[in-house]
Amino acid sequence: MAKQPRILAGKVIAITGGARGIGRETARLCVNDGMKVAIGDVDPQAGQEAAAELGPNVAAFALDVTDPASFRAFLTAVDERFGSLDVLVNNAGIMPIGPFLEESDATAQRILDINVHGVINGMKAALPGMLARGHGHVLNIASQAGKYGLPGGATYCASKAAVLNLSRAVRKEIRKSGVDISVISPVAVNTELGLGLGEPRVPMFRKVEPNHVAEAIVSTIREPEFDVHVPKSMKVSERMLAVLPINTQDNLSRLTGGDYALSHIDAGARTDYELRAARSEPSLAAAPEQGQLSGPNDS
Fold first, then answer.
1. Catalytic positions
2. DSSP class of residue 183?
C-alpha cells in the first residue's frame, strides 16, 4: 500500500537563507499549509521583513550557517518558540561566478564555508534531536550545476556536488531511523542569485521561478523522496547523459548552450548580488546573545 502524504499543519520547519528567493517562497507556502516557520538568515533586517509579511506563525532569527554555535543557537531558539523541529531546509548559499583561475582564494573559501560547511553544520545541529525522536526530515538544496559541472562556476559546482554526496552518505548512515534526507536540485532560478546568467538554447534548461522550487520542496516534505529535480524533466536528461562518454556529454552541453549558463553572463546585472555575496560574512553575537528578531506579534 502506498504511503499517505504527510499532513503538514502544525509541523515546525526551519529554513536557512529564508529571507529571500527560494527560502522566502518556501516559507510562504509552508505557512499556507499551516506549518510553523522559522527563518534563519544572516541579514537580520531582511529576516524581520519576511516574518512581518508572512504572519504570526513565522519568526525570524539571526543565523550564520558557517558557525556551528550559531546554528545550534538558532535551533534552540526555534525549539523554544515553536517546539521540536520537524523539518530543516538547508537553503542558504552563494554563487559568485567567474573563471576558475581568476577566482580569489577568499571567494573559494567563502563558497565552501556557506554552501558545504553550512549544510554540514545544519545537519549536525538538527539530526541528533530528530534521531532521538525517531522522525524528521532534512532537505538540502543542491543544484543541477553540481551534477554536471559548468564552466564559469567551478567552485560553486564543486560545492553543490559535495552537498549531493554528503546527503547520500548520511542517508545511508541513518537508514531506518525514521528520519528522511532529501536533495533538491534545480536548474538556474529567477532570483537575485540568478541575475545576468546566460540563457541555454534548450527550454528545459532555462530558469525556473522560485515558487517552482518551493513547490518541489513542500511536495517532498509531504511525500519524501531522495533525489528531486526541478524541473522534473531533468531526471530523464540525467539518466540519458549518464550512459554517454564524457566527450559526448561535453559536446551536448555546448550544443544545447548549457555551458553558457555560468560563462556567458551580464556582469553588470550581477554587480549588486556579487557585492552582497562578498560581504556575506557577518559578525554575529555569541550563542547566548543571539535573540529572535521581532515578528509582527513580538514586542
1. 156
2. E
